[in-house]
Design goal:
Radius of gyration: 29 Å
CATH topology of the largest domain: UDP N-Acetylglucosamine Acyltransferase, domain 1
Number of helices: 4
CATH superfamily of the largest domain: Hexapeptide repeat proteins
Strand content: 25-35%
Distance between the termini: 110 Å
Shape: flat
Helix content: 10-25%
Number of domains: 2
CATH class of the largest domain: Mainly Beta
Amino acid sequence: MNRCQLIAPCPPAAGNPPDFFPMAYTATEIARHLDGQVLGDGSVTITGFAPADRAKPGDLTFAENPTYFTRAESSAATAVLVDADFTSTVKTLIRVASARVAFARVLPLFFPEPQFPPGAHPTAIVPASAKVDASAHIGPYCLIGENAHIGARAVLRGHVWVGANCQLGEDVHLFPNVTLYAGTQLGDRVRIHAGTVLGADGFGYVLDNGMHRKVPQMGNVIVQDDVEIGANVTVDRGALGPTTIGRGTKIDNLVQIGHNVSIGEHCLLISQTGIAGSTKLGNYCSLAGQSGLAGHLKIGHHVTISAQSGVMRDIPDGQKVLGAPALPDKEAKRQFIALRRLPEALRRLAELEKREAERAQTSGGVAG
């Protein structure tokens, strides 16, 4: 115990049981939480949230267009979230600025996050040099490296590896089997889902006398505040400087981010996207599923890259691209339309060539 120490042990079980008692709110209380307005009986009790086709008495549902509202009004739900001028004689309505935003804000009332007690599980390994806030939860079989820092109210679910000199901010939440290589830095309120690896070596090699010689990767990964990273994502460390992910960015499952990539703030990266080394993204970029970006590119702010696009060049601010190689969307759509018309155009060309050949043969025969 002179090399490693365990901070105050915590109970082995954590989180709410699956059959926890539901919370109950009046429609007026929910409207106040959402800055909304009640139309109808504000005293009705709401105990859950469900889509219209599965709602039961006591449930709240939502409708953002006339079709959904018709379904919601005929459902068993007690109240309906709306954002348009709907009226009802059979349901209590809660009118808000955006039904979809209200949906996201109200769900935590009925499905709260599990609560994890402070302290470390007896199987966790925490070296004396590590600084772990007393309010943090260190789950079963977690391993904390030398000189690592774990911030207030951080949660490490279990089987989490935090390498030496890692820095974790406040309210960080790491799901099972997350791996942070040495020197990784996480800001506040970062959530990383199961199986994700941050800080593995970047894919750097140089050809030397017929062999691929490894270029040592000496950088790290920096993740800023309010980033969420999905399951089985890989973010490589920089070769010298950092690989960075900007504040508020959300990354879906199965995304690959290469070394020295810089991702701006509030970007969205959808599943199976891949970004090669040293490419830089601006703020508020959206990369749809299976899009791929070559290395050393500069992508501007507010850029949208459509699904399965292959980006091989820089993209200026505000542009939307699609295709492989990716082109501005209007140009690419014109090409797609032309390609669909190509078989018919080739058929007509063949007919014209055949007629011209017949005409030439006939003309030649008469002349002879």
